[in-house]
């Protein structure tokens, strides 16, 4: 069994669990430090990053998550999950976060909930190793109060952009999207996480 921990404090975790089942993984809902044993991958869903950050601190989960990620456990994060991973949240410097991904983000860069939209985006597919040749595809990107990535460090690969705004990135075994693949039928990102988690499990 390839066990993928899905942060389940708040937000769209059920949809990620369903997508992970669909690709053959075993999703494990994480609500406290005790749920973080024996995992091979992590999924950080969308929702409200300010609430998730508070709960991560209250439940003393931040350090444990950071350790797992620094130990190269593969991670797929969407929207609020991307914000949680970032080094810098512009204008919300006090907000607790994991600081595992070398990006600076702007929250709510596309307006309010009612301004949500879906758009077919040409994206670079997440890659499995540095040597992979770059593949592109068209992806149905769902935006719900989505952040944008204002800056990305030199080791961060840009996977998606729209009108000059960076919307998806990869840094080694971390992939993060401002949009919501779990709300579509397209399992590209969940398949990537499953494959990387399999590799991680084999390396243990
Ligand atoms: N705007 C939200 C935040 O800042 C993220 C929205 C989402 O995850 N759909 O946390």
From TrEMBL:
Q: Which gene encodes it?
A: pdxT
Pathway assignment reads:
Cofactor biosynthesis; pyridoxal 5'-phosphate biosynthesis
- Catalytic activities: L-glutamine + H2O = L-glutamate + NH4(+); aldehydo-D-ribose 5-phosphate + D-glyceraldehyde 3-phosphate + L-glutamine = pyridoxal 5'-phosphate + L-glutamate + phosphate + 3 H2O + H(+)
Task: Quote the InterPro entries the UniProt record gives.
Answer: Class_I_gatase-like (IPR029062), PdxT/SNO (IPR002161)
Kindly list any coiled-coil regions of this protein.
none
What Gene3D superfamilies does its record include?
Answer: 3.40.50.880
Higher taxonomy: Bacteria, Pseudomonadati, Thermodesulfobacteriota, Desulfovibrionia, Desulfovibrionales
| Xref: PANTHER family | PYRIDOXAL 5'-PHOSPHATE SYNTHASE SUBUNIT SNO, PYRIDOXAL 5'-PHOSPHATE SYNTHASE SUBUNIT SNO1-RELATED
Protein EC:
4.3.3.6, 3.5.1.2
Q: What is this protein called?
A: Pyridoxal 5'-phosphate synthase subunit PdxT
């Amino acid at each position: 069994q390839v066990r993928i921990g899905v942060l389940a404090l708040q937000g769209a975790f059920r949809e990620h669990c369903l997508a992970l089942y669909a690709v053959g993984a075993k999703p494990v809902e994480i609500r406290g430090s005790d749920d973080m044993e024996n995992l091979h991958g992590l999924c950080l869903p969308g929702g409200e990053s300010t609430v998730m950050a508070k709960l991560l601190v209250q439940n003393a989960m931040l350090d444990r998550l950071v350790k797992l990620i620094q130990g190269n456990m593969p991670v797929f994060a969407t929207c609020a999950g991307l914000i949680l991973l970032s080094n810098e949240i512009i204008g919300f410097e006090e907000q607790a976060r994991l600081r595992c991904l070398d990006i600076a983000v702007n929250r709510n860069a596309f307006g309010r909930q009612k301004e949500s939209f879906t758009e077919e985006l040409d994206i670079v597919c997440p890659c499995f190793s540095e040597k992979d040749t770059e593949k592109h595809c068209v992806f149905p990107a769902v935006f719900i109060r989505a952040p944008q990535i204002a800056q990305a460090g030199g080791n961060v690969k840009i996977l998606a952009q729209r009108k000059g705004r960076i919307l998806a990135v990869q840094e080694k075994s971390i992939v993060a999207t401002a949009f919501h693949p779990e709300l579509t039928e397209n399992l590209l990102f969940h398949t990537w996480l499953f494959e990387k988690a399999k590799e991680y499990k084999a390396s243990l």
